[in-house]
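Re: the 80-residue chain
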Amino acid sequence: NTLNILGGICYQVYIKASTSNTTFGAKLIDNASRTVREYDLSPSFILDETPLIMQGIYTFQVVNGSHDQQYDILLMIREK
């Protein structure tokens, strides 16, 4: 889960698997349990630079991972 985002625009979502040979997808879910973004299967990492207005707490869900492991998730958000 993210910290509580007071309101802003997310300019970059970066999700990286621990190993380079991992294929996975991901979902970004808001605090009302709505899927805001859904990412198709990708090898090694996902990079989304599409602006997204965000407010509240969000949950990232990794789906269909080819390996059970940890993932690094980074957000670049400009809060108002």
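The mean pLDDT is 93.
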